[in-house]
């Protein structure tokens, strides 16, 4: 289930970017960044970057994560950052992923479900990334 959650967060990170303010002058590769510059790290673009994820970067392929995040990103830790990175990353990360796993398990123990033909794929950003028209599913009996 982690694979599916990770791949969903890769393609549709609820927060499309994270911000950092540079405290003191730093060198980033070839760049010298002065103090007080604000940097926006575009998680959404990074998650869709073919150089990092391959030519199929736009496809939903949970098996990318079958051997964990380090393997999926080839140890490029900044390639996957749905919860940010570093000492100020998301404090709710474990809570949110555990909740998603529990909720999905509770549903799947009772009903297999399939996507409704009425579903229209239209992710939008309105504070967070979300499905514009909701996600209609059909519950089946076990
Ligand atoms: C799928 C669900 C969630 C996602 C994708 C998410 C994502 C993020 C991201 C990207 C950041 C910025 C991290 C950074 O700047 O490096 C953040 C920060 C934060 N998140 Fe979440 N979050 C989620 C759920 C939650 C939940 C459930 C809580 C609380 C129970 C929470 C509390 C926080 C707090 C307090 C911060 C600020 C941390 C700080 O600045 O030190 N988040 N989150």
From TrEMBL:
<dbReference type="InterPro" id="IPR001128">
    <property type="entry name" value="Cyt_P450"/>
</dbReference>
<keyword id="KW-0408">Iron</keyword>
<keyword id="KW-1133">Transmembrane helix</keyword>
<dbReference type="Pfam" id="PF00067">
    <property type="entry name" value="p450"/>
</dbReference>
<comment type="similarity">
    <text>Belongs to the cytochrome P450 family.</text>
</comment>
<keyword id="KW-0472">Membrane</keyword>
<dbReference type="GO" id="GO:0004497">
    <property type="term" value="F:monooxygenase activity"/>
</dbReference>
<dbReference type="GO" id="GO:0005506">
    <property type="term" value="F:iron ion binding"/>
</dbReference>
<dbReference type="GO" id="GO:0016705">
    <property type="term" value="F:oxidoreductase activity, acting on paired donors, with incorporation or reduction of molecular oxygen"/>
</dbReference>
<dbReference type="InterPro" id="IPR017972">
    <property type="entry name" value="Cyt_P450_CS"/>
</dbReference>
<dbReference type="InterPro" id="IPR036396">
    <property type="entry name" value="Cyt_P450_sf"/>
</dbReference>
<feature type="binding site" description="axial binding residue">
    <location>
        <position position="90"/>
    </location>
    <ligand>
        <name>heme</name>
    </ligand>
</feature>
<keyword id="KW-0560">Oxidoreductase</keyword>
<dbReference type="InterPro" id="IPR002401">
    <property type="entry name" value="Cyt_P450_E_grp-I"/>
</dbReference>
<keyword id="KW-0479">Metal-binding</keyword>
<protein>
    <recommendedName>
        <fullName>Cytochrome P450</fullName>
    </recommendedName>
</protein>
<dbReference type="GO" id="GO:0016020">
    <property type="term" value="C:membrane"/>
</dbReference>
<dbReference type="GO" id="GO:0020037">
    <property type="term" value="F:heme binding"/>
</dbReference>
<dbReference type="InterPro" id="IPR050665">
    <property type="entry name" value="Cytochrome_P450_Monooxygen"/>
</dbReference>
<keyword id="KW-0812">Transmembrane</keyword>
<keyword id="KW-0503">Monooxygenase</keyword>
<keyword id="KW-0349">Heme</keyword>
